[in-house]
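Weekly structure sync - notes
Attendees: PM, LS, DV (DV joined late)
Agenda: review two folding runs queued last week.

Item 1: First target. Sequence and structure tokens pasted below for the record.
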Amino acid sequence: MNDMELKIGSLVLNNFLEVESKSSAGGARANKISTLIVNSGKSVLPYVDSKAEASSTKPKIKRLSKLKVKGFRGFNEPQEFDLSKRFTFIYGLNGTGKSSFCEALEYSLTGKVNEASSKRFEPSQYVNNNSSSKGAVSLTVEFDDGKLAPAIKDPLENEFVFIERTRIEAFARVSSYSPQGQQQRLSTLFGLEEFNNFCSGFNKTIEHNLPIPPIKKKELEEKEKEIEKSKLIVENKNLEIKGYGTRKDSLLLKYPNKKLISELLTILESDTDGLIIKKKNEIEKLSKIVLKPVDKTQEFLNTLIGLNQQFSMFNTLAHEVKKYRDEINFIDLYSAVKKISSSPMDCCPACDTPISKVTTNPFTKAETQLKILEEISAKQKSLNEKKKNISESLIKLSSELKTVDISTSLTLNNFNPEYESIKLNLEKKISEWGKWNYENKEAFEKVESHKKELKSLEADYRECSTITELYKAAYKEKSKAEKIISEFNTANKDLIAKVEEEKKEISHYLRYSEAYKSFINKLKLYSEGLPLKLAKSLDEKVVELYNAINKHPYNHEVLESINLPTKPNDGIKIKYLDGTTEDALRVLSEGHLRCLGLSILLAKNIHDSHNVIIFDDVVNAIDDEHRAGIINELFSNTLLSEKQMILTTHGEDFIKRLENQLLSKGLNKKLSRYDFLRNHDSRELLIEPNLNRHYLVKADNNFKKGLIKDGLMECRRALEELAPRLWKKMRTEGLDPALSLKLRAPLTSPDLYNLIDGLIGYIVQIEKSPGIINFSKHRECLMKIKDVSKKNQVTWNLLNKGTHEEDRDEEFDENQAKELFELCLEFEGLIKNYSREEFKIDTTITAS
């Protein structure tokens, strides 16, 4: 950005809260920024970017502590929930109030409820219990500074603390929404909603809000109308003078040594050594050698020869006319006869002889002779015209011949006798004069060249004189007009000074106006580019989480990369390890799409460094196939397992599996448990705390209550849950634990005893070769259980008899049961405290 844009940045940042609170409506933000420019625009310094980002002043939630609700959604009576522990698991069948609990948390943390918006309810209307006019909810949280305080309702900060079905589907199917819906979800996903709202709150321009109108200038312009004519004269004369200057420069280019028109006039017009007089003298000197008119003489010869040809044709025509001269005398007679023939006649009009008896019909003869006489008459007319033309041409030629020193007076009568003489004379002159001209050709060319140069010099002299006079006239008129303007300027000196100062002010504000336009354009481009940058930061984590939840073994099912949409109408593009690229919405199944939505939400929660994650009945959104992957990822991925987790579910098996992921030792310090029970008598929520489903916790509680059989049953269930986990952990380490197991009957699964026996055998095998001792403690613990069982199978009988219902002659031995329970606790600790460190290989061990 340039300095002016950085100054705009400083003004906005220094007054951020005031600017951010204004929107573009009614030009409110433009007015605010314009006011800042007027007040501080001259003193503000360009913004200097700091390498260290300013840390947020907002406190961040470290964990939730306590929730109190009354008259909120399904809660009628006051209820209090202890949320201070690392985990809070809530189980309840559909319709028992789990969503009301999560919505109370959502309302406390974000100030809204997504479900209310989707159903077009106002939050205040949606959250109230049917029997309560006003609901109350209070959430106490611990912030990262260690202080306990009521939660701050911040939808932008806390949106991705929550994971539930609607959110999962919304982000999995983001590309299927309208452009407006996509934009809203993308802004939320990338945490840009607040920033985009801020960026869109700028007006396009602040030009009309700044004091730009030139008030003083307009005042001066009104007065300047009085001298408008003088200004126009000055302007026009300046243009004229500029044009004369161009003409002067063009003229002086011919005379490199001269810089001034006056100098050029002197060298051109001097009577003694001026260029013009010198050139005239040279021409006069050379003009004594006269160029003979050879071309003109040739033209006269050609004319003479042409007249001779015409004279011959004239004589021929005269001879023809002369032959018919006697016939012409009868023309009147023939005409009279022809007139008589127009009346019926039987006799000759001359002798009265009957027509039938005459030798030649006089009327026919008269008509024939008249045609002949008409032709003769035409020739006579042409003869007269030729005579006249030839006579005139002879007179003209006689006059022209005098210019070449031939004196004659040609007529029709003397042309033939004079022709040859004149012709010879002309031919002689042409020959002699041609020779003369050739011999003096150089002198003649010099004369012509000098004449052209003289003409050019005279033209330059006239141009010099013209420019000089025009300059004088223009300067005179200009000076006169400038005097009028000067007198006006003196009378309006103060106003003119204010106009100049106003120009600087306007220029200052116009620079700010242009800087503002470029500033918001760059801000817009930056805002549009942010989703792409932020998407890249999420893409990798989404792929990692998606693959971890799905656990696909084939390259065409495992994701290599994902491109989240960065603008409306973009799709979610996925690429598999086999190189195939697809649109996620097109190829993924419903279950996989929801896993993708969950992965996006988890990745966003990790990216935003939230310390809390709240699941609202996630089982509703995820199918059975992927629940094991989710459980494993929540407890094995350190980016998730270190967060405070609050989870509700209607899945009884799911909640049991979740609890058994935790170590039984000190479980009550880490886990708060609530069961929402079905109330068959009223709509009031029934909530039972601390109904743990952890096998070993339940076993311990039963032993303490003297319920030995029930305690043994839970111990067996614990071993049935822990033994397969050991098998999975060995596979996770890259081993290939293919166990040899005995089956008691066809189509049956391996029983627990044979599974433990197979695990011990496999661990013994890898300890010998290649010497992997990571699981030695696990083997030793299992062998203790197995060793005890060999004493008349007492321990194993305890497990079996405690599980299966049968009549017994003797009671269970409490000490034996306690011994088995301690072994189960030891085995649980080995499984759940196992860390994936490098293999420990004892190189002293060799295969036997």
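Item 2: Second target, run right after the first with the same settings.
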Amino acid sequence: MRKNYSKKYVLLCAFLMMSVIAFAQTGGIKGKVIDETNLALPGASVSIDGTTMGATTDANGNYNITGLKPGNYSITAKFLGYIAFQKSVTVGSNSVITVDFALEPQNTNLNEVVVIGYGTQKSKDLTGSIATVTAKDFNQGAVTTPEQLIQGKVAGVSIISNSGAPGSGSTIRIRGGASVNGSNAPLIILDGVPLAESKNPDGTVKISGISDPLSLINPNDIESFSILKDASAAAIYGNRASNGVIIITTKKGKSGKPVIDFSTQFSVSKLTKEAPVLSPSQYRAYINANDTTSDKRYVKLMGNANTDWQKEIYQTAVSTDNNLSVSGTTGKLPYRVSVGYTDQNGILKTTSLQRYTGNINLSPSLFTDHLKINFNLKGVEAKQRFADEGGVIGSAVNFNPTVPVTSGDAAFAPYGGYWQWTDPNNTPSGLKGLAPRNPLAMLEQRNNRSTVYRTIASLAMDYKFHFFPDLHANVNLSYDGAKGTGHDVIQPNAATNYDILQDGTYHSGYNSQYKSTNQNKLFEGFLSYFKDIKSIKSHVDVIAGYSWQDFKDVNFSYLNHFSDGTVINTSLFNYPYFINEYQLTSLYGRLNYNYDQKYYLTASLRSDVSTKFAPGIRTGNFPAVALAWKINNEDFLKGNTTVSTLKLRLEYGQTGNQEGINDYEYLSQYSLSTSTAQYQFGNNKYYQLYRPGGYYPGRTWERTNSSNAGLDFGFLNDRITGSVDYYYRKTKNLLVLIGQPAGTNFSNQIVGNVGEMTDQGVEFNITGKIIDQQSVSWTAGFNVTYNKNKITNLTTIPNPNYPGIQVGGISGGTGNFIQIDQPGYARNTFYDYQQVYGANGKPIDGVFVDQNGDGIINDKDRLHDHSPDPKAYFGLNSDFRYQKWNLGFVARASLGNYVYNNVASNTGVQRNFLNPIGIINNGSSSVLTSGLTGNSDKDVLSDYYVQNASFFRMDNIHLGYNFGKVFNGAGDLRISANVQNVFIITQYKGVDPEISNGLDNNFYPRPRTYVLGLNLSVK
């Protein structure tokens, strides 16, 4: 026993001695963790990667890790709200090494480079109201046009899709817009190229054959957006900047080995809501109950079918979007090459968009980085098929639901077998005049297609002088060219189009063809000077430059062929050919100065010369100035982690607006007459000159004076960031219709410069990192904008009795307008009669409030009633990530906007159902609750149809999973699922409350879209 005990004792002592020796051979790591201002970060974690060993810093930022075996280690320092930093170290035996960490704030927004006019700045140094959205924050899902990437993301920016049609554009407004009759669209800058206005003054798209020019830009190629909202930021773009500026920057090549990125999406779109009309059973009951004719002539017109015409014209649409890019560096040449293919089908049958895109970017640096070149080449081919959206949808709402889509009856054979309202007594067409046409036939018997090619090339060169490296010379060259061709063919057996031949007979069918070219050329040169003057703690940034831009549009069309090639009466056959061209020449300069990174000054001036105006009044000067105080860099706040960012901004500037003005309108323009107005002299026929249209030689640009006060803030090491801005904008020289004294012009009304309008509002946005850990994070953002618009004057001489200008034409009656522009009210204010209601709560047919008590109901009794623009609109977004999963959403809301329900006012009355022309129609189901007959010509102007359209819309819900490394670590794989247009909460009784002009008249509905996506990146 004693012997065994002795052996155990010896072994125990030996083990203890070996442990002591081993411990004596271990080492350690110590050090300090500080922030970017050299202040200690107490509570930071410092850990040995791949182990459970680590330490937490004390009140002085110090840490100490002991008991480490000799060897190589990876050590990481982390602190909430800061970027984790990793270092590789070697620990020896019996030694303690020192490893210090300086962590940078995780909110890189303050340090990121923001693209501004003719240069860049760090976000923390901005003096103007500029918002930036980068690729990591873009909206996800089936995105066809660039602006959809940032919808709901930016305070003060309203983006409303114009319809649910493939490739449909959006109405973009920054702080409400600054014009009444001119354009309210912002200036778009693409990789330094100021794009031409997307629409002509008459509202047609400038590039023929496409729904929206922005749809010709592949969203997958975009890196970032910079939105210049106030005049101090936008004034550098002068007379095109009154409505703000959006700068789009596309992706570029990066240093490193090649990276191949592939993405594909498959989407299914469905109709969310039909226009509310009577079902076949409700329809039969209504016709039976209201047909008071002695012979029941309307009842006899009903058939035995049960047709849902809206289901006949809509479909479940399947679409795909595919993109492939290769980026990297070959030699010393960074490059990115990408191709994309989009095949989007609309939920309205026959509508579609196919788009092929290609993009090349080369960005070499030469002469030891003294010369930097950025070359971009973008090409696109887009093929689109259109439909008569309003006509087809309106016909589907109206068409008799008791008749079939097609019929074998011989009476319908001339019209392709489609059921139509026929009238044998109406020769030669055999159709009932003014009756709606079969909506499905309108789709299937028409082929309206286009093909558009667009090329955008830009070359930017930045030379840093060898002998003076603070001075740079910059030259930008660009070309934006588009060519659109199209044809619109209606079959010869269609019931929608009849024209007279030379022999007096009628023939259906139609063939219209067109071609257009658009060119936008730019030359720009400027000098830039950057200097840090450390002796006086100052930084100076100056630019001065010259710009020349030429815009040219050529349009040619030939009309009125039959689809079989027959030429109809030559008096109706013409070849319109138009060429429009104008130039913009500019000088500009800007100074940025800051002292000690506390006090900032920005001043700019641009002088524009535009040939859109008459000689002598072509020049306009647009100055701006901004001040900023970075309070958090003052001694009393420096290093404060609670209030980590605080910057006050004050801005003022002038901008102009020349968009929405036709070229040459300062001249009296003559044109040749048609062949029907020829005169004969001897045996020859001669064309006459039309008298010229109205002209206004004194017209010039609208001028907007803007002021802004803003505060940028950040709390808890910028874990919470945001800003609040108050702005006031006053536009003078408004482009509005001006009455002309008899005999003084060739028109009794012309568009001229008169009047003033104001916009004022408040913007607020906030973003917070609610959870910020390595495996779990949650970021949420919220923004709200309040804007109040008011027209203050529309006359050259003050006139309190000025009646205003009625706008907002509607269907129903003849020449009716439901909106008005009048001093004292917002633009496009609804102008209606106040409806009188009975004891049962229903409107009394044809009875309105006599506002002035004169016993007569006329325009003097109409009220200025609500606005289509919201009083406030909101954006809300959230992104939650857990390990490899992420879940997010984007939502928007609008409060105080109203919509005129023209579908209900035009079709939801008895007169429409029991039509006096001898047919029966379907229509809005509102007829069951209103009981209105439509016999009063004032019914369509009733406030009963001006409805509250406030809404909350869940735009997007997305779920993604990142598989991480695949292909032996060579690639990254991610899959995602999205639902777009998830739901909407509103009191509005129509299909959709979100209508930019406030007039709901057979709107192409926005679909609900389900998207599956895959992203693969291979290095």
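Discussion on item 2: DSSP finds nine helices and 57 strands in the chain.
Action: LS to circulate a short write-up before next sync.
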